[in-house]
């Protein structure tokens, strides 16, 4: 056993989720994590990898859909085939993260894993990395550790983590117990959480010994656990594809929060490190404006290589995935997303409603553009 | 000489003007008159021809740019080559209408001509035609006759015609003298004009004996007159192209209003017939909303074959020249014009400012989309 917990730390990057509220930029064939949404010149998945690599080197596993294999390898050419888990169909986060845990456990049962979604924007990187280091040290004491984000607004879009008493972990001075996970609140409740100071956003970041993850999964979702263990046993053998194809489609669909995090918190197995970095899940196009520092001195945020935008008394966000000239006149807080086969025009205020538009297009049979 | 003035009546359709405020739909390569802007299934130039044909049969001449030859013939296949005047470069309305007058005069000096722009929307057609008939009867008494449009709002976008005493012309009970033409007024002055009742919009419709048009042109613009007469003499001969190419580029650029109408009014040679039909010059995209009856019961006017528009809490005008899906969410009175190489997003209120956008694009070198 490696006595430095960081030496047995592996990262898992679940790269799922279409990012419906970012349609038509993000869509089934080109989901959110494959885009550069911050004007940094880097896709979100590549930025996620680069943020973790200083901690784990090449000990990174990615879980994504089969359709995204080439795109992911294009972004992460250093990724080994054995560390790319391809889902034939989406099975929610418990199956994705659970299978990664089972594969890592089979390779080394002492492994500590960290799961970090592929489509989040985080900075400064060193503050994030320090939080992860604390989380790893805390996980080594036998905890499932979540990194909670200090809320900046009374958001109703996230679940919250209620932290408890301080833990006393060497190398993790800010570690605390977690009392409970709470569902997305209404606005009044959210305001109370922010004032209280003990509530943090649940960003879905988990660091834990793989053995502990699997133990909770076995207790709460025995069928799911049996399936992923069967796949994991075949993973580094010639039987990988056959087993995956046979077992995966039958796995139950459940979120890791329900399958592991909440029941584990109930028995006192969950700890938290406060994440004091800035964090954004780029939930909608209004976020694009916030996240593009280039736009600080301009009323118009423009994303897209070779975008040709003319604006007159206009403000907002333009995402251009074409080389068309876009002329905007006399329109405030607009959101325009221009792609070869679909155009979205809305406002920052209505950015959340893009989800319903996608649902309506789906219902009306316009699936070619989804 | 044909004693029925309608028997010697010929129509001229000047088809010039890009319609800059309708960019990017209307542009140098596909100007306004080549579009169906009313959802009627008919381009503006074809509708203009069809409105005049019952009065003149095939006695129609079109003046347009060389670049539009094929497009115009595509719209008006019945047009004879001898009645299609192609400008190698735009020379404003006095040269265009003057040359038509000179050609018609050379063929028959007793001809009465009527000039009607190719890009106006008019209805009901029988009311228009009755006004033209009155104008022709009045012209036959030796007048340049304009058809003035009764103003419906205090517009500052048009020049006005001030009518004078009633004339006593058989077959033209509503004919009056014209006291003067006045330039585009400011809003207060325009309100006064509308209340007064004797002011009409100048829609640029002129009906006149070609001999009288040419006499005024000779007096006011002798150089221009000499040039168009020289071209007209060669027009129906083998020397047409050579003469046109040699003489046209040197002609002075001046509007027919300054070269003929205003000076003719000053000497009492201009009469007016009030046009009691509805009239719209489709000056900007706000007009598209007004002119499409299909939209009466909808908050969204959609123009374009095969347009795929999804709208949620949105209103305005969409002109689609692509097959893209267009999703609009939470945006009122929007104007969206979607073409393969350029996209315009503005509001009805700012529809007039499209002109400045085009000027800015020109200045910045984005001429490929103009």
Automatic annotation (TrEMBL), chains A, B:
Residues 12-294 form the Nucleotidyl transferase domain. InterPro entries: GMPP_N, ManC/GMP-like_b-helix, Mannose-6P_isomerase_type2, NTP_transferase_dom, Nucleotide-diphossugar_trans. SUPFAM superfamilies: Guanosine diphospho-D-mannose pyrophosphorylase/mannose-6-phosphate isomerase linker domain, Nucleotide-diphospho-sugar transferases. Residues 315-361 form the MannoseP isomerase/GMP-like beta-helix domain. One of its GO terms (molecular function) is nucleotidyltransferase activity. Transmembrane segments: none annotated. Pfam families: ManC_GMP_beta-helix, NTP_transferase. Keywords: Nucleotidyltransferase, Transferase. This is Mannose-1-phosphate guanylyltransferase. It comes from Arthrobacter halodurans.
């Amino acid at each position: 056993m490696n006595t430095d917990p960081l030496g047995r730390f592996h990262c898992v990057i679940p790269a799922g989720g279409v990012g419906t509220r970012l349609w038509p930029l993000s869509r089934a064939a080109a989901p959110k994590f494959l885009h550069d949404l911050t004007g940094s010149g880097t896709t979100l998945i590549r930025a996620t990898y680069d943020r973790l690599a200083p901690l784990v080197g090449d000990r990174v596993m990615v879980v994504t859909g089969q359709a995204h294999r080439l795109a992911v390898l294009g972004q992460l050419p250093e990724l080994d085939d054995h560390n790319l888990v391809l889902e034939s169909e989406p099975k929610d986060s418990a199956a994705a993260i659970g299978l990664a845990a089972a594969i890592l456990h089979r390779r080394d049962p002492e492994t500590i894993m960290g799961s970090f979604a592929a489509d989040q924007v985080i900075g400064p990187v060193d503050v994030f990395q320090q939080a992860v280091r604390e989380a790893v040290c805390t996980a080594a004491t036998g905890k499932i550790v979540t990194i909670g984000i200090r809320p900046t607004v009374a958001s109703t879009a996230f679940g919250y983590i209620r932290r408890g008493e301080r833990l006393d972990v060497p190398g993790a001075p800010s570690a605390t117990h977690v009392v409970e996970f709470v569902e997305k609140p209404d606005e009044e409740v959210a305001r109370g959480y922010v004032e209280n100071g003990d509530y943090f956003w649940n960003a879905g970041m988990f660091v834990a010994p793989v053995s502990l993850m699997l133990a909770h999964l076995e207790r709460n979702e025995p069928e799911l656990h049996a399936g992923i263990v069967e796949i994991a046993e075949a993973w580094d053998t010639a039987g990988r594809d056959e087993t995956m194809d046979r077992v995966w489609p039958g796995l139950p669909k459940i979120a890791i929060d329900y399958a592991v995090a909440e029941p584990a918190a109930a028995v006192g197995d969950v700890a938290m490190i406060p994440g004091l970095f800035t964090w954004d899940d780029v939930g909608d196009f209004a976020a694009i404006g916030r996240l593009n520092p280039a736009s600080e001195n301009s009323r118009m945020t423009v994303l897209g290589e070779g975008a040709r935008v003319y604006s007159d008394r206009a403000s907002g966000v333009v995402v251009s995935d074409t080389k068309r000239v876009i002329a905007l006149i006399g329109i405030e807080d607009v959101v325009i997303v221009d792609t070869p086969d679909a155009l979205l025009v809305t406002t920052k205020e209505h950015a959340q409603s893009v989800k319903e538009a996608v649902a309506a297009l789906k219902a009306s049979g316009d699936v070619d553009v989804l």
